[in-house]
């Protein structure tokens, strides 16, 4: 994730996964933080200390029982280790704990039912080791999913990168129309051209990290700039937006509009040489709407057009574009996918109701009921997309 700097758009949010994670949320396959404090472990549950050192992977689990239980994973080796609890047949993962340092113990809470299981220990710089199989009789197993590997994510990433290339070509065309309107002195036409161009760029949200510094030049804000909106480093869509909706003349806007068109064109021309990190694709699906909640629904990035909800709608389109490429991986791994699709449609319909021709209701003018419904819809989506991010995090299988 790029570091925040003056003039950059507010940093894209991602709550990074903690060192210890477990798959335990009532039927939804998601990873949640496991406690590092013994006092926070569930009372009355079986607690089992298990070694996860490569030479003794899984040692100590010799009294298997069904139901919810807590494993204390102890790394007795000299290097950091990741540990997965897997179904022995098929390799579906029930839970994982990352970054277990030497001499460190982490906890993992899972629900086990009839079946065979084993711990897989993955050292930082060595091959994975699978511990002995353990048989559990009785009960119902908690949620599990086949691990996604880095290789699995390459085809979706390539497909998405090609889609972004087409999107950038369209943004170049639309920013050219915006620049031309400013050059003619047609400020009404420029205001009409600004929003389609900006939304076209916003739909490409999962690629922002690969855009590098170009993202700040194209979609940056005045956050942290000494001169605020008058600072020379304030450029891009929001610089033009501020001028168009705050009485700037065409003469004052020609240079910012031309610079925006030039930056977008340069990004399009350079895109064929860029390579997105396949490992980030699932995470970006979550981040797009997480940032929508932080910056668009709050109106923090409004520089006069009042179009934040239009941007939020474009962000939903961008999220769909990522999910479409990940769908082959998610269909067999995420039972909540149909519900996610339904909630996406519901959020789209909700935002479409705030559109009035070429204008959108600004977030500040939503009624209390409208605000609550919008916040609830996006909060729900962010939670569901956290599962997508977790499931699509690549894991080592060897």
Give a concise summary.
The chain has helices spanning 150-183, 187-202, 208-211, 213-219, 237-244, 250-271, 281-296, 308-330, 337-352, 368-391; strands spanning 20-25, 28-33, 47-51, 67-74, 81-87, 93-100, 105-112, 115-123, 129-130, 134-136, 355-356, 359-360. The protein has 398 residues and is α+β, with helices and mostly antiparallel strands.
Main attributes of the structure:
398 residues; alpha+beta; Immunoglobulin-like; A middle domain of Talin 1; seven-stranded antiparallel sheet; three-stranded mixed sheet; 10 helices; 12 strands; elongated; disordered N terminus
Account of the protein in words:
The chain has helices at 150-183, 187-202, 208-211, 213-219, 237-244, 250-271, 281-296, 308-330, 337-352, 368-391, and strands spanning 20-25, 28-33, 47-51, 67-74, 81-87, 93-100, 105-112, 115-123, 129-130, 134-136, 355-356, 359-360. The protein has 398 residues and is α+β, with helices and mostly antiparallel strands. The protein folds into two domains: 20-136, Immunoglobulin-like; 150-391, Up-down Bundle (A middle domain of Talin 1), CATH 1.20.1420. The strands form three sheets. Strands 1, 2, 5, 6, 8, 9 and 10 form a seven-stranded antiparallel sheet that branches. The chain has a three-stranded mixed sheet with strand order 3-4-7, with no helix packed on it. Strands 11-12 form a two-stranded antiparallel ribbon. Strand 1 (20-25) and strand 2 form a beta hairpin. The chain is elongated, with a radius of gyration of 24 Å. The relative contact order is 0.13. Mean pLDDT is 88; it is low at 1-42.
């Amino acid at each position: 994730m790029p570091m925040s700097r003056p003039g950059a758009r507010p940093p894209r949010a991602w709550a990074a996964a903690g060192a210890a994670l477990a798959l335990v949320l009532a039927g939804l396959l998601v990873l949640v933080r496991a406690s590092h404090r013994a006092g926070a472990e569930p009372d009355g549950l079986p607690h089992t200390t298990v070694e996860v050192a490569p030479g003794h992977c899984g040692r100590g689990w010799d009294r298997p029982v069904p139901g919810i239980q807590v494993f204390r994973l102890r790394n007795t080796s000299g290097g950091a280790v990741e540990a997965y609890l897997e179904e022995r047949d098929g390799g579906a993962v029930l839970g994982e704990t990352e970054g277990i340092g030497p001499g460190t113990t982490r906890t993992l809470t899972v629900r086990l039912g009839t079946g065979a299981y084993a711990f897989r220990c993955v050292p930082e710089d060595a091959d994975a080791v699978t511990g002995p199989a353990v048989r559990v009789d009785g009960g119902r197993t908690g949620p599990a999913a086949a691990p996604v590997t880095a290789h699995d994510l390459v085809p979706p990433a390539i497909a998405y990168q090609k889609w972004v290339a087409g999107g950038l070509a369209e943004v170049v065309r639309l920013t050219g129309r915006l620049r031309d309107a400013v050059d003619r002195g047609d400020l009404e036409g420029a205001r009409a051209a600004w929003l389609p161009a900006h939304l076209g760029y916003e739909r490409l949200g999962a690629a922002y990290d690969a855009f590098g510094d170009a993202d700040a030049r194209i979609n940056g804000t005045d956050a942290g700039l000494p001169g605020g909106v008058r600072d020379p480093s304030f450029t891009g869509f929001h610089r033009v937006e501020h001028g168009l909706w705050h009485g700037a003349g065409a003469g004052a806007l020609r240079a910012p509009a031309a610079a925006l068109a030039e930056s977008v064109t340069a990004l399009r021309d350079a895109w064929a040489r860029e390579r997105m990190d396949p490992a980030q694709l699932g995470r970006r699906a979550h981040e797009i709407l997480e940032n929508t909640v932080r910056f668009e629904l709050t109106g923090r990035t409004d520089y006069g057009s009042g179009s934040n909800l239009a941007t939020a709608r474009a962000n939903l389109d961008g999220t769909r574009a990522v999910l479409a490429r990940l769908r082959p991986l998610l269909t067999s791994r995420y039972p909540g996918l149909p519900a996610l699709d339904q909630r996406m449609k519901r959020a789209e319909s909700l935002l479409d109701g705030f559109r009035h021709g070429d204008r959108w209701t600004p977030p500040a003018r939503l009624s209390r009921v409208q605000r609550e419904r919008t916040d609830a819809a996006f909060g729900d989506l962010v939670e569901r997309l956290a599962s997508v991010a977790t499931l699509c995090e690549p894991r080592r299988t060897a």
